[in-house]
Design a protein that fits this description.
It is built from twelve helices and no strands. The protein has 304 residues and is mostly helical. The longest helix has 29 residues. The radius of gyration is 19 Å and the shape is globular.
Length: 304
């Protein structure tokens, strides 16, 4: 596959887009929590991806955009669809059955920390410094506290919380690797790229739901279906287009800043509207993760 070089420059418009992405992604954990109460996780994933794909295909035709991907593009669509969409969506939807949506949001803050390490080896223009390494280590300690203290305590009570925490952490790593690798994808328009990725993801997610959770829609009600529709429109369809736009124009590390703000919004929604509570280890881990991100970005010079 060809190695495509993008020109990286952060502009004011990228900060506005970043704020919109934070709203979309931050609310997705709460809507996931609502959806999986009555719909199985794989069907939540399959439906939200399919809704997103249909909307973007309609937009593609409305704008009369050409969608003629090469074999290389298709290979990337399948890879990014699996790594950056199906896998993390499934892990998160399954995980929020056992842990608060706010905790899932906090664990997503590990994405920029993982990106720092991955980008060092994959992207030649984003090398690891001692400051970034220190921030990563502090954030990693926060994750250990979140998963270790809270998860082991709940496991002793006979729950699946530890495995859910590990699964959501794995989802964060999938996002980090996806965001880093996507910058090597051969050039194609953001809408076309989004259509290709979501279409490939839908073609994977729907058969999985039919095979592994054939009765997953039996208990669906209006609230859970509405939550899935919201997930399909905003954090999936619209966010996917904005994701690739920011990624190709402003870079993986800038995009990763969204995960500094997403957990804050996710915690606010979870505590305020879903009645979730956080224990001391959650707050300590949260603080360390965010502190690690602040350290990695503290002396970063603004793009000129």
């Amino acid at each position: 596959m060809s190695n495509t070089k993008y020109s990286i420059k952060v502009e004011t418009k990228h900060w506005y887009i970043l704020f919109i992405l934070v709203l979309f992604w931050g609310s997705s954990f709460a809507f996931n929590k609502i959806a999986v109460r009555d719909i199985s996780p794989m069907w939540v994933v399959a439906l939200r991806i399919s809704i997103g794909a249909v909307l973007l295909i309609a937009y593609l035709f409305a704008k009369r955009l050409k969608f003629v991907p090469t074999k290389e593009h298709i290979a990337w669509f399948v890879g990014l669809g699996a790594l950056g969409t199906v896998a993390p969506f499934t892990l998160i939807s399954w995980g929020v059955q056992f842990v608060p949506s706010s905790i899932a949001g906090i664990l997503m803050a590990t994405v920029p920390l993982a990106v720092i390490i991955l980008a060092h080896f994959i992207l030649p223009d984003e090398k690891l410094s001692s400051r970034k390494a220190s921030g990563f280590l502090i954030g990693f300690v926060g994750v250990v506290i979140l998963v270790g203290v809270g998860g082991v305590t709940q496991l002793q009570n006979g729950t699946m919380q530890l495995w859910a925490l590990l699964g959501i952490t794995l989802a964060a790593l999938c996002y980090a690797l996806n965001g880093t690798l996507a910058r090597h994808m051969p050039r194609i328009g953001n809408v076309e790229k989004s259509v290709g990725v979501l279409l490939a993801a839908a073609l994977m997610a729907l058969p999985m739901a039919w095979i592994f959770e054939p009765n997953g829609l039996v208990g669906a009600n209006s609230a859970s279906l509405l939550a899935v529709i919201v997930l399909g429109i905003f954090p999936t369809a619209l966010a996917t287009v904005l994701l690739f736009k920011v990624l190709t124009e402003a870079g993986a590390s800038f995009l990763a800043l969204s995960n500094y703000l997403v957990p804050v919004f996710a915690v606010f929604l979870g505590v305020t509207f879903l009645g979730e509570t956080l224990v001391w280890s959650d707050w300590v881990g949260f603080g360390l993760v965010l502190s690690g991100i602040l350290i990695t970005e503290r002396k970063k010079k603004p793009a000129s």
